[in-house]
Amino acid sequence: NELMHKVAHDYDFLKETLKHTIKVDEFTGRLWNIYETIMSEGGPTQELDVGLFRSDYFYCCGSKGIKQVEFNTIASSFGCVTSKLVQAHKYVVAEAGRGDLLTDIPDNGALEGLSGGLIEAWKIYAKPQSAILFLVEDVTYNICDQKFHEFEIRRQCPEVYVIRKTLTELGNRAEMKEDKSLWIDGHEVAVVYMRCGYHPDQYPTEKEWEARLMMERSLAIKSPSISYHLAGTKKVQQELAKPGQVERFLGDKAQIESVRDIFTGLYSLDHDEAGDKSYDAAIANPDRFVLKPQREGGGNNVYGEDIKPFLEKIKDSEERNAYILMDRIQPPVTTNYMVRPGQEAKLVNVISELGIFGYVIGDKNRIITNKQVGQMLRTKLSHVDEGGVAAGLGALDSVYLVDAGSCCST
Q1: 161-166 and 175-176: which strand pairing?
Q2: Which active-site residues does the annotation give?
Q3: Measuring CA to CA, which residue among 30, 36, 43 is closest to residue 14?
Q4: What confidence tens digit (pLDDT) does each residue in 275-286 have?
Q5: Among residues 116, 12, 74, 51, which one has the least CA distance to residue 363?
Q6: Cα gap 21→171, rounded to integer Å
Q7: Helix H or strand E segment including 368
Q8: Tell me, what's the pLDDT at 353?
Q9: Could you tell me where the beta strands, DSSP code E, fall in 219-362?
Q10: Where are the beta strands (DSSP E) in 196-261?
């Protein structure tokens, strides 16, 4: 959280890192234009940001350690569902007569913690009649995850009013007043919690882009701000993996080493010597890598044998600059029961990805609050590339702790 907060507030680093990407990736370019507009106007009116983040990891059998898959700075989902699921898992285990195992299934405070982060930001805004705005899609499939954040906010702080609006509704009805406060339908907005806005499809017209710019110009505290959004791009992740870059933002040697230790191999595909070397390596051994664009929301990566024809198609195109290459992590394969609606539960080979939720509040000069609040475990079939829960290829899961000495050779 601290690293990404500092990255987001380093204009020169973001500009240098994204200089090629913004020329060929139209969506990232539009986000960058908003950021440049804000900076050219003297910087954000609201200097405080609140980041509700999730950092995702696999255990890697090759390096025998935890490796980061990605860092999510916008619309980090499943904080609610996983927090509720652990209660169901504990119930089932107890009903099966194994109450002795319950202490090895850790509680998950993600929902409580993330909601608490939004409340803390609302209190900092310090206008009791203001609202927290959930920015949502036109059609919201992940409605339960979102609504329980709303319920938890009201449970912790009943005086907070939560409203739900789309980008299109903001474009049509929101206004920014002379004091830069953001208003919609008679409500002043203290905090904007973005559960959409991370994909080009969510900006169908210029109205939505105008709404995003108005949000960024306003006094409302954003989760995420445009700088946090840009800091979450894959290109930034790849740049941070280069020698000496983490040291630019963190000073403690032990902290630097612990952060660097979780990075896997990340490589540029820019049209230069290093990018050409990465390109050749991917063509020669595509199964070793994952090809990633600058997108959130899943389903965008290219894997295995699909990498070679994809890269050959864009070899001489500037579009190559919009992608990064990542070493493919080799997680351990285990067996578990996959439970899907309308089907019998099946015992299958699976792999699991651990996400750690946290939130940070601060400005370019200081961090006010930085907390780790919970976890998400996503388990998918071992033979599939994408682990989409909604697509039926994966499922949400809960952590079960075991004594490392009893199951691990090292």
Answers
A1: unpaired
A2: 54, 70, 72, 77, 234, 292, 296-297, 378
A3: 36
A4: 999 999 999 999
A5: 51
A6: 27
A7: strand 367-381
A8: 95
A9: 221-223, 266-268, 289-292, 302-303, 324-327, 334-338, 346-362
A10: 221-223
